[in-house]
Specification:
This protein is mainly α. The chain is globular and about 85 Å long. It is built from 17 helices and no strands. The N and C termini lie far apart (112 Å).
Length: 529
């Protein structure tokens, strides 16, 4: 048939001719340049070569949809990008938007560093020289180094497991334990240690903070104190009232400023404590030999109790998932990246606090270190040698750090209260209900602290009981959720670390019980000193 040369009337939009090369859409939605046209021949072989020379690179081609295909393709590309940005189809619990841990997800690496440093350094670090007095130089430094590296690895494991299952974020430690161990077993294994590490630490902070406020007042006031000073219980009440006022901040992200204050004060008072101790003359009867005990079994249990004190100094792993849940997470920008950046910075400074306090404190006081830790040693040995202003500043910094740490350790308890309320009422807590929960929790913690004022002397036992949260459970959860190849190095490494953590937990708990039985525990209920 002869080809017609007259002008062809076409409609708009025009349909591409059969021998034209369609334009291909790039991933950005822009049209690519047309492919160069090949010479049309009439032979069958050449026609077959021509048809094979071009293959459509997309199933949605504007060959038969242009120009409608262009906006449709752009819609599909934008939809794909949106699904990636919102978290690769992450299933979100609507109730999370009402709870204090997850209602704000604008955290970043800086917030992660503040929270981790505030949660990771506290009054437990001041007890490290007490452990060294039982272990000596070699075993003390070795144990502290191994514990630091071990908990740093389990920290990385928890950060990676936050989104171990595609489409799910484990926002709380108990949720991750349930996913790994099962619904019931996960609660039994993780609930008690995490509750103690939150509520128990809050109670201990009230005791330490109240007693430190009392010492601060005595140093500042001196001989000018009134004849009727506040009692210890009244100082506990003052400290608790300050904690309740600060606890009215609504969510975990909103206390980032307080965590920054807690981080700065922790670094400052830790540095001040060991510098003041090292700069003073050491007691003449100092010795660096581990404390001698009447029998080998007694020495063994004392060493286990000391190792429990070292384990108790590494706290904060029960808050790792909660801190990470405050960050946005997408397919392209997962939350574990800023979380790990912030955690690395925080734990560098934690090492700069713990190691100098342990080594400098033991160098300054040796086995004369009192059971109360560094503050008690400074007050006992150098109370009249160091300027009152420096002592007052150090004690005031401890008070500020306790106030800040109370907030971050109490946040999981606040979250549990509000989760129970919202699940029953199917609505968010009002301002008054939220405030009521926090006032109630503050005064319950005060009541427990007054009823059991000896809790701060149980560091070794409690360190053993809560050790699996930091050193054992993360290794087990990695194997159960990530499922590395059986009998591989990764598989063996995590199983061995996990069971070692359980064994150490049992041993340290036995050592803590032995220490209580041997040294005695003054069970002065409702009679704080």
């Amino acid at each position: 048939m002869e080809e017609r040369h007259e002008t062809e009337v076409v409609s708009i939009p025009a349909t591409p001719r059969a021998n034209s090369t369609p334009e291909i859409l790039t991933p950005t939605g822009q049209r690519s340049p047309p492919r160069p046209m090949t010479t049309t021949t009439t032979t069958a072989g050449h026609a077959g070569a021509k048809s094979a020379a071009w293959m459509p690179s997309s199933f949605i081609s504007p060959r038969f949809l242009s120009p409608i295909g262009t906006p449709m393709k752009r819609v599909l590309i934008n939809m794909k990008g949106y699904l990636e940005e919102v978290g690769h189809l992450t299933k979100l619990n609507p109730q999370d938007a009402w709870l204090p841990i997850t209602e704000s997800r604008n955290g970043n690496a800086h917030y992660a560093a503040f929270h981790n440093l505030n949660a990771g350094v506290g009054f437990q670090a001041l007890l490290l020289p007490v452990a060294f007095s039982f272990l000596g130089w070699g075993w003390g430094i070795l144990s502290l180094t191994v514990a630091y590296c071990w908990q740093l690895y389990t920290l990385w494991v928890l950060v990676q497991l936050h989104e171990a299952v595609p489409g799910r974020r484990y926002n709380r430690y108990v949720e991750l334990a349930q996913a790994a161990f099962g619904e019931k077993l996960g609660v039994w294994l993780a609930l008690f240690p995490t509750v103690y590490l939150s509520a128990g630490n809050a109670t201990a902070l009230i005791l330490v903070g109240g007693e430190t406020m009392k010492l601060f007042f005595q140093i500042v006031c001196g001989p000018l104190c009134s004849s009727n000073p506040l009692t210890t219980v009244e100082w506990y009440l003052v400290f608790t009232s300050l904690c309740i006022v600060l606890s009215q901040l609504p969510n975990l992200n909103s206390i980032a400023g307080l965590s920054l204050v807690g981080a700065v004060t922790a670094i400052t008072y830790s540095t001040m404590v060991w510098v003041l101790s090292v700069s003073q003359q050491r007691p003449p009867q100092i010795s660096y030999q581990p404390l001698s005990l009447p029998s080998a079994s007694a020495s063994l249990f004392a060493s286990l109790n000391a190792l429990g004190i070292i384990a108790f100094a590494f706290r904060g792993h029960n808050l790792i998932l909660e801190i990470q849940s405050t960050m946005p997470s997408t397919f392209k920008h997962p939350a574990h990246v800023p979380m790990w950046k912030g955690a690395k910075v925080a734990y560098f400074f934690i090492a700069m606090c713990l190691f100098p306090v342990a080594i400098g404190g033991y160098w300054a006081y040796g086995n004369l270190m009192p059971s109360g830790g560094m503050l008690a040693a400074i007050y006992a040995f150098h109370g009249h040698d160091i300027a009152r202003g420096l002592l007052a500043i150090a004690f005031l910094l401890v008070v500020f750090n306790c106030l800040s740490s109370f907030q971050i350790y109490s946040m999981p308890v606040f979250d549990s209260f509000e989760a129970s309320y919202t699940s029953r009422t199917n609505r968010p807590c009002s301002v008054w209900v939220r405030s009521g929960f926090r006032v109630f929790y503050g005064f319950i913690s005060l009541l427990i602290g007054v009823a059991f004022p000896f809790l701060s002397s149980l560091a070794g036992l409690l360190g053993g009981l809560t050790l699996p949260v930091t050193f054992a459970y993360p290794c087990f959860m990695w194997v159960l959720l990530k499922q590395p190849p059986k009998y591989s190095f990764n598989w063996y490494f995590n199983w061995i670390l996990g069971w070692l953590g359980i064994a150490f937990s049992v041993a340290f708990s036995i050592g803590g019980i032995w220490s209580i039985v041997t040294n005695g525990l003054k069970l002065k209920f409702f009679k704080p000193s």
